[in-house]
Specification:
Layout (H helix, E strand, L loop, with lengths): L2 H21 L8 H12 L6 H8 L3 H13 L3 E5 L7 E5 L1 H25 L2 H18 L6 H6 L3
Antiparallel strand pairs: 1-2
Helix pairs in contact: 2-3, 2-4, 3-4
């Protein structure tokens, strides 16, 4: 892909993300950081440790702790002591947290659903779906470290 095409694509993806954020109503009483932390906990297949949340969001431990404190006070997440190492805590959604995440996703997706329905032809929808699979492949790409490629290791 040419550099100019890559830059155009990146700009288009950022524009769509910005638009989705603008169309999403704010969650009253929660910072954007707390909403992002809530999203990571929701996407986690099981309880998740705060350090993993910080790594995924590239947030400092103090910012994660602050967001978790706000989410805990609102009854959206709960902290559970790790069964193996009681010094560690795991974070899970409460039923109220699950409801809020479901409502937030529905409101966030509502704008995009309407935009796709109102603007795209069936053929364009098919192209968009195919493009989504390609973007997913790119997101899952983890190149081998250069030293293993040079040695011919797999």
């Amino acid at each position: 892909m040419k550099d100019e095409d890559l830059h155009r694509l990146l700009g288009q993806l950022r524009a769509l993300q910005r638009r989705q954020r603008r169309e999403r109503p704010p969650v009253e009483g929660l910072s954007q950081s707390a909403v992002r932390v809530l999203g990571v906990v929701a996407r986690s297949e099981s309880a998740i440790q705060p350090t993993k949340i910080g790594r995924e969001l590239i947030m400092t431990s103090s910012n994660v702790a602050s967001a978790l404190s706000a989410l805990t006070k609102r009854g959206l997440v709960e902290r559970i002591a790790d069964k193996v190492d009681t010094r560690r805590v795991n974070i899970t959604l409460t039923p109220a947290g699950k409801r809020l995440v479901a409502e937030d996703r529905a409101s966030r997706d509502d704008w995009l659903t309407h935009a796709i329905h109102d603007l795209l032809t069936q053929e364009e929808e098919s192209v968009l779906i195919a493009g989504g699979f390609i973007l997913e492949r790119l997101a899952d790409y983890h190149p081998e470290p250069p030293h293993t490629r040079a040695m011919g290791y797999k």
